[in-house]
């Protein structure tokens, strides 16, 4: 099996990126350079499902570790040290597939919501990211901060802001020598306008929406 990275380095401290998502920045952001992450659809813990995310140097940045018997409608995104960054919870009693994202482990006053687009025949977006609830059926874009287009199943997605600027991309990744790593390993390219924490939260939501029943947490 081709290794995602030959080693996992857990730093003593990792920036949490926990500013408001509309103004998140990073070290790379100050240089106007994108952050390139490697996302592995696998938990580091034997008894869990989840994600393991590395930076360009092979250092662990984010992790999601959900026990098989845990709450399948709630996912916690953590930093390398296991500190909770964002709680991602499916909205109850919602007609559409709608997920709310909260700071830390709180579930009060969500920061933003992600709603699956039901009618894919009308427009290219597969999901909307909103600051004030979900988009309605008449395509009212009020409150829509980002739109996600493409195919998560094919690991080919683009996140656009309200000015149609690309702020994040999900891409397939190949190992050195062109060996395909499969759909469980892919790149997440994040522009400084979005922030890597929010971008990874969107990946988690997309996996819940489009990852398939057998692959849900």
TrEMBL record:
Organism phylogeny: Eukaryota, Viridiplantae, Streptophyta, Embryophyta, Tracheophyta
Instruction: Read off the SUPFAM superfamilies from this record.
Output: Tubby C-terminal domain-like
Q: Name one Pfam family in it.
A: LOR
Q: What's the family?
A: Belongs to the LOR family.
* Gene3D superfamilies in the record: LURP1-related
What is this protein called in UniProt? Answer: Putative tubby C-terminal-like domain-containing protein
């Amino acid at each position: 099996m081709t290794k995602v990275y030959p080693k996992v380095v857990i730093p003593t401290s990792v920036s949490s990126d926990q500013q408001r998502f509309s103004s998140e920045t990073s070290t790379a952001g100050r240089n106007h350079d994108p952050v390139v992450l490697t996302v592995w659809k696998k938990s580091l813990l034997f008894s869990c499902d989840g994600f393991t995310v590395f930076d360009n140097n092979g250092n662990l940045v984010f992790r999601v570790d959900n026990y098989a018997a845990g709450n399948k409608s709630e996912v916690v995104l953590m930093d390398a040290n296991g500190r909770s960054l964002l709680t991602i919870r499916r909205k109850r009693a919602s007609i559409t597939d709608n997920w709310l994202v909260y700071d830390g482990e709180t579930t009060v006053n969500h920061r933003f919501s992600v709603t699956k687009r039901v009618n894919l025949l009308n427009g290219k977006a597969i999901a909307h990211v909103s600051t004030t609830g979900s988009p309605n059926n008449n395509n009212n874009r009020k409150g829509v901060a980002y739109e996600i287009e493409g195919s998560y199943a094919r690991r080919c997605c683009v996140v656009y802001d309200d000015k149609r600027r690309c702020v994040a991309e999900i891409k397939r990744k190949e190992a050195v020598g062109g060996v395909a790593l499969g759909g469980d390993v892919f790149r997440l390219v994040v522009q400084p306008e979005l922030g890597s924490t929010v971008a990874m939260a969107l990946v988690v939501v997309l996996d819940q929406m489009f990852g398939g029943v057998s692959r849900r947490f």
